[in-house]
Amino acid sequence: MCATCGCSVSPGPPAHDHAHGHGHTVTLEQKVLARNDELAARNRSWLTQRGIRAVNMMSSPGSGKTTLLERTIRDLAGETDMAVVEGDQETSFDADRIDATGCSVVQVNTGAGCHLDAEMLAGALRALDPRPRSVVFIENVGNLVCPALFDLGETSRAVVMSVTEGADKPLKYPYMFRIADIVVLNKMDLLPYLDFPVDRFRHYLDRVRPGATVLEVSATKGDGMSGWYSWLLDAVDGER
Amino acid sequence: MHELSLTQAVVDAVEERLGDARISCVRLEIGKLSGVVADSVRFCFDLVVEGTTLAGARLEIDEPSGAARCRDCAEEFTVDDPIVLCPACDGANVAVLSGQDMLIKSVEVSPACVPPAAAR
Predict the structure, then answer these.
(1) Both B55 and B79 in a single domain?
(2) Which of B4, B24, B85 sits opposite A207 (nearest CB)?
(3) What is the pTM of this model?
(4) Each residue's pLDDT tens digit, A115-143
(5) Count of the separate structural domains present in chain B
(6) Cα–Cα distances in angstroms (integers) from residue B58 to residues A37, A44, B26, in the given order
């Protein structure tokens, strides 16, 4: 019996000569994320051709991304056209909240998935059909790990962090903070009731993302939002 | 658990490139700065290959260190840790040069057995 494939042919001398290539190695040298990266590049070029700013918003669950978007949409209505892609494992709760503001929104449910990918964004953009020169917010699945690895084709990346979380998060989740174009530190109105050392947070962030811009805001009270708005409307798109 | 979708992407890519060929071994390279946990990929592999041309295939994973260069003092160094700091000046202003990718290096193919006519 052939020891390699278990077929019943006895290998005869001088060589094992029946027609199959044992141990035939095929070199691939292919990035596992090649397909995602290709689709992401397509999304990015589609967006930039239309002058659309697409912000990939990433954070842990509960940092206040949706609240930040609700206020942003209300405050910037009239300044720019906006649309939202909501990513969650399940439910359309977030999309319903955005819909209540009157803004176009598409909910993407990832099911077992822990992040959005470029194909999901492509589908969402087809459904949304955002206007040229508008702003598209992509609210990624609340997760500081997986979304960092998947390029969506966004034009910039915002990491939202709240002061109810640990100040050491930049060091605990370095992949996420390293790719941030901007870091929004939310729930600043709660700071007096918490033990969140802002300086230490900034120091830790500097260890993984030197020179990162940090905006201290309260999305519920509206404090510090003007910096976020000028970044959205003026900032040069980040480079990956 | 992004390793599940990454492992699925490995299987999809191999099937796309090799068609119906039966695969006996898959060799991956998972850089230490890729953010991908090799053990999780091993765990996912057996689940994901079930019912595909990769079923029963051996999985070999190489985990190379990364390389980086300090933008402040020009020191070049190898890195195994995702928090990349310059060993010379302790600065964090570093450019990562390699170690961030997950690659399918090669596969070993064992096409369906076609015994010679005399043996049939």
Answers:
(1) no
(2) B85
(3) 0.87
(4) 999 999 999 999 999 999 999 999 999 99
(5) 2
(6) 27, 37, 6
